[in-house]
Structure formats: C-alpha cells, structure tokens
Amino acid sequence: MVIILDEKPPRMLPAPPPYSVDPDGASLPPFPGPGPFSRPVATFAALPPHILLYIVHQTLSQRRVERQRKALYWMTISLRLVNRAMFVACMHVLRSTYLPAYTSLIKQPYSSDPFPLSSASPSSPSASYPPAPPYLASPSDSVQRETQVLDLFLAAKVREDVWADDTELHLEREEAFQDLFDLLQPRARLEDLVRQVGVAAGVVSVSTSGNAIV
C-alpha cells in the first residue's frame, strides 16, 4: 500500500503592522515610553518621611529585649548608612531610645539639651532666644554641639548592650563613658550656651554650613 502525501507550500501570511506611536505621546505596549501614563520607578528613599520612620520603628517590634538591642545595633552599623533619608529616620529612633540613659548620666551641676530644635518652656532661660533658622533643621548636620556627644554615647552604648547580651563574660567598664560626661558633654554644652547667648545678643553668627560659628 502506497500513501502519497500531497505537500502544499506554506501559505505566506502578511506581516503584522508595526507599532505606531500614539498621537498623545504614549507608545503602545509592550514598550511603554514616556507619556502621561508612565510612572517613575519607585524607590525606598522616595517614601514620605513619616512612612519611612514607621517602617524603621517597626524593626523594634520584637518582644524580647535582646532582639531589640540587636536591631538597634544593626540600625547603627548598617541601616543608617543606606542613604540620607534612612539616616535621618534611624537617628530619630536611636536618639529617642537612648536619650533617657544619656540624661541619667549627666553630672551635676551641668545641664543638657542635645536637640537644637527642642521647644523651650516659657519659664526656661532659653525661651527668649530666637528660633533656629530653617537651614539648621537638618538632623544630619546639627549646629548643636551636644548632639554629637549624644551620637557618640549611643554608638558606644548599643555596642556594650549587645556584647553584654551575647556573653556573660563581658562586663561593662565603668570608665567606658567617663570621657564623654567628664569632658565632652560639659564642653559641648558650654559651647551651645555661648552660641545661644551670643546669637541673642547679636555678637555671634552661625554660618549656613550648619556647624561653623563666627
């Protein structure tokens, strides 16, 4: 039995028409181009500050204190170095977390005010000082000298806490913060008071760089 296959040449179909550009400026899919319907690529740094701060604060939602301290340590050595927005959010959480421990170590009769934009009560002597100009509102470049001392304290404190949780052989040294509160904190506080009184009297001016005093 012989089977004869009658092969016919393939039918040539016409080529599809090329993609045309919409008159309004938006190209058709699958190659979307710039137009009224295109959106910029979303990045983590493009989030609003309050949402970014909420995300950073949620990293401390652990119930165990040891895990919270590890999260603060990770926040100090890694997360805040991502970009400027992350640095501002992390420093807000770190400073508010370690501020009570910092103020408890202030030696009498020294005072403390590590935040330049803190609201002064009417009864305090600093209530008559003029408010800080807008260019000094950057948390990453503060004109307040004592803020730098607070940052040094929290960087050392978070490390000591994590090491104490990791092993019982680690003992917190009594002199670990001695230089901070015997020398750096009183000197920084005095410089801040001189700047505040000098600005109020008109004999001291702060440059726009944020940390230079003339």
From TrEMBL:
Origin: domain of life: Eukaryota
Region annotation (Disordered) ranges? 121-140
Could you tell me what this protein is called?
Answer: Uncharacterized protein
Native organism? Phellinidium pouzarii
